[in-house]
Design goal:
The protein is an alpha/beta fold. The protein is 36% helix and 24% strand. The longest helix is centred in the middle third of the chain and has 19 residues, at 189-207. Helix 9 links the parallel strand 10 and strand 11. The structure holds N-(iminomethyl)-L-glutamic acid and fe (iii) ion.
Length: 407
């Protein structure tokens, strides 16, 4: 059977090696690099990959890339891309010394975005979110996670899950929805918790496409014990757990989430030796978000120490209006080298296969037989340009499930 498409003219084909699941520790820097490579694709999946000279099949169509490097499509495992309004006032106030937590404690920050988002219709939110998703896609993200968390009530949160899911049909990128239990309401905290662990979780399970339930564990948000109740309810619906932890204070969120078997613990800017050791001894992936360190001026998550201790690290933009207005998944990967101490090859692993693992996806993030043919053609013959470049896109062409997309 001839393949649908043969891609040649690949100066370097670069991929994390074939194996199962996230890559831990210093193995994150092991990449397979095939010079003068070719990829054969059928039905959106990779049929064959190797040195061009060893290809002896047939293909109905052929594309010659003219000597450019190819890497897997990036996976952005952590965004809050669905929001209304803006946080420009916060940005200005912080630049003159007010803290992010102070603004939040005074009822602003995330709470102002909750108000501004809840007042918008699904159609308006789609119109606001789609260009953000297209920006992430143009930067090389072929799979993008989007969280809820800006709905003022449990019912609005459920509607936002559906709005996020609807976006999947409107962009070539694959959109993955996460339910984020973000902030407790100003009053009736227990009632809200009961609704989230009750009918909201039941409905999230029924929808079938919710990839995870995430909880913001922080002094101004939920306690580890409250988060455990939410995770238990999610587990009853077979929905994996994730958590925003140690962004400002290490209050036990990492330890609880790891013990619960969460898929990921995200942020970690305030994590110390105990938290690092607990993640390293687990299969939970540590997600670093360098855009937050850059935008808020808070400490960097200890990416280097986590990898050296044996953890699996992933990277995301955390695209949101308050803590990370970063519209490029490629730039997040590039920043993980400068801010979190990853090597370029570790950064590529963090932004591909490890990010896919956070979303429970085993069919992408590597360029091997049977994987989805999601890949990027760089504007360079050297793959390292995808991690080196900042501020301009090193991505020349994008293929999703074997088809070139116009982003
Ligand atoms: O990942 N920290 C909690 N949630 C988001 C920020 C949301 C916002 O500031 O609007 C985060 O940083
Ligand atoms: Fe976040």
């Amino acid at each position: 059977m001839p393949s649908d498409l043969l891609v040649t003219g690949i100066s370097q084909l670069v991929t994390p090696p074939a194996s199962i699941g996230a890559v831990h520790g210093v193995r994150m820097r092991e990449l397979d690099i095939i010079a003068d490579a070719a990829i054969a694709i059928s039905h959106g999946r990779i049929d064959w990959v190797g040195a061009r000279t060893s290809w002896n099949g047939e293909a109905r169509e052929q594309i010659d890339l003219g000597g450019r490097a190819v890497v897997p499509g990036l996976v952005d495992p952590h965004t809050h891309a669905l929001w209304g309004g803006d946080r420009l006032q916060d940005f200005e106030a912080r630049s003159s010394g007010l803290g992010y937590e102070e603004i939040l404690a005074a009822g602003g920050g995330i709470r102002s975005t909750i108000q501004q988002t809840t007042r918008r219709s699904s159609e308006e939110l789609i119109a606001l979110t789609l260009p953000r998703v297209q920006a992430l896609l143009r930067s090389g993200a072929t799979t993008i996670e989007i969280k809820t968390g800006y709905g003022a009530s449990p019912q609005v949160e459920l509607t936002m899950l559906e709005t996020i899911h609807a976006l999947d049909q409107l962009t070539p990128a694959a959109i993955m929805a996460t339910l984020l239990v973000h902030l407790p309401p100003p009053s009736d905290r227990e009632e809200y918790l009961q609704q989230m662990t009750g009918f909201v979780m039941f409905e999230a399970g029924r929808l079938g496409y919710v990839r995870a339930v995430d909880v913001f564990i922080e002094r101004e948000a939920w306690s580890p014990e409250e988060a455990r109740r939410i995770f238990t309810a999610a587990g009853n619906q077979r929905i994996p757990a994730r958590a925003h932890v140690d962004q400002f204070h290490a209050i036990g969120g990492v330890e609880m989430a790891v013990e619960f078997g969460a898929r990921s613990v995200d942020h970690l800017e305030a994590s110390g030796a105990a938290q690092i050791a607990s993640i390293a001894a687990s299969s939970t992936v540590a997600v670093v978000l360098p855009g937050v360190t850059l935008h808020l001026g808070i400490p960097a998550a200890p990416g280097r120490t986590l990898i050296d201790a044996g953890a699996a690290v992933a990277v995301g933009t955390d695209l949101n209006p308050g803590s990370s207005p970063l519209f490029s998944t490629q730039m997040a990967m590039a920043l993980s080298v400068r801010i979190n101490g990853l090597t370029p090859s570790e950064a590529l692993t963090a932004a591909t296969v490890n990010a896919a693992d956070v979303l429970g996806l085993t069919d992408r993030g590597r360029l091997h037989r049977m994987q989805r043919a999601d890949f990027l053609v760089l504007d360079s013959s050297d793959w390292r340009d995808v991690v080196y470049t900042m501020g301009a896109s090193p991505v020349a062409r994008i293929f999703i499930a074997g088809r070139e997309v116009v982003a």
